[in-house]
Amino acid sequence: MSQAPSGFWREGDDPGRRQFATFTQGGHGFALEGGGHLDEVTVAYETWGTPNADHSNAVLILHALTGDSHAAGPSGPGHSMTGWWDEIIGPGKAVDTDQFFVVCPNVLGGCQGTTGPSSLAPGGRHFGSRFPVITIRDQVAVEVALADFLGIATWSAIVGGSMGGMRALEWVVQYPERVHHVVVVAVGAAGTADEIALCSLQVRAIKADPHFLGGDYYDTLESPREGLSIARGIGQFSYRTWTEFESRFGRDVQDDETIFEKGRYAIESYLSYQGDKLAARFDPNSYIVLTEAMNHHDVGRGRGGVVAALRNVRHRVTVAGVSSDRLYPRELQEELARLIPGAGRMSLITSPAGHDGFLIETEQIGAVIRAGLSGDTPQRGVQ
Predict the structure, then answer these.
(1) Which residues are known catalytic residues?
(2) How large is the angle between the packed helices 136-150 and 284-295, nearest 10 degrees?
(3) How many CB atoms lie within 10 A of CB 322?
(4) Number of domains, the chain
(5) Mean pLDDT, rounded, for 4-27
(6) pTM confidence score
(7) What dihedral angle (degrees, nearest 10) is formed by the CA atoms of 270, 273, 274, 275?
(8) What integer is the mean pLDDT of 324-331?
């Protein structure tokens, strides 16, 4: 049977700049925190710059929910878009590839070359509904395997925003000997009730799509794109702000449509566009798996609570937040800065763009990252 159309990466597609590594954890596979198991994991990753003799100049970049390994570089074969932090990573940029060897992997559970629900399971069928529950800690365990494969004993720095920031925190808490410094942006120590509420609605939207079929839609002619589009619209609402929406859209009607004759307000059109755009390049099952992993995020789980876990961090940690973030409000980053002994004061990215400010305000976030990589922990907010 023909497969449902997809914009996510499948084996046999053009790899672009991706490289691949497959791990079996000493032949035993990966035992997952939630009780599941994966016999092996393939990781898609990209690199920039050149490692020095002992790989001590290696920097790990960790992407957010719908990001991937293509953090820098142009669009082209294998990559539908320009790198999501292209203005941050490169020669002479904040993450200077003339100085650092930069690595960015696609996360476990993703859909751009790393093992996830759309991958083929043993037996040749897509995992689909059989893909196990994963957590941020499972994702980091796979990243540790990648570091070992690349011969990187200790990262010079790990940088991540949003879901990437969750993984950066887990690295410094669980593997302190494997990293010198971390930069954590736009996230907190644990998922909040507010975040979980928004995420749960997004998951329900995808599962309610009649083409979802319990997650086993890969060998059908349709996929739950409408459900994913709605989920992304909910997410986009939380990524931006009231101020931005009012200034950009207000009560404007889209184009020349008549609102009383099945027309749309401009903000409706915008959310629909953002949803459809993501649905053209992302796997709905991956969206669910990664969203739920974010909900499970809690650096204090099994470690005596958040305070105890963060109090034991002895690294230099750069913490940054976005002034208008309503998904992960600045209070969460202030808590991180207060509880981590080596964090100093939180750096504040001033932006009307909300949570997405960590992707949009490249000059400000670049200054924060540059300071962190140079060994400085900013003591004043970036204004």
Answers:
(1) 162, 325, 355
(2) 100
(3) 31
(4) 2
(5) 87
(6) 0.95
(7) 120
(8) 97
